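Q: Predict the bound structure with FE2/S2 (inorganic) cluster.
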Amino acid sequence: MEERANGVNSGGESTGADDLVWIDACLTDDLPAGEMRALESDPPVAVYNVEGEFFSTADTCTHMKSSLNEGYLDGDQVECALHMATFCVRSGKATSLPATLPLRTFDTRVAGNQLQVSVPRAWVSEG
Ligand code: FES
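A: Predicted complex:
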């Protein structure tokens, strides 16, 4: 497994179409229920623990590009700290204005004690 300077580990296992790859996000114990964090991919991806279920979306608000990780997670709704738009982290759907466009969502899985997210390989490639 390749150790990356930005803290993202790439397992190198392709998920098929769209050249997605599973990456290590964090230890599941490091993301308790009701918490979220952003990965240092480019662009950044956010992971969420909603009552023991893990979800992942783009971290960048579709309104004016604030980091959602700086906002608040309430149930399965993440609220942007800048103008208070909300999104459903399950579907990515914008659920309140001023955002109208959805967030991209990503598959998650738990491997041992590691939370993993399937993201485009180019977002975590060396360069
Ligand atoms: S930047 Fe997120 S609501 Fe405006």
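A: The chain has a mean pLDDT of 88.
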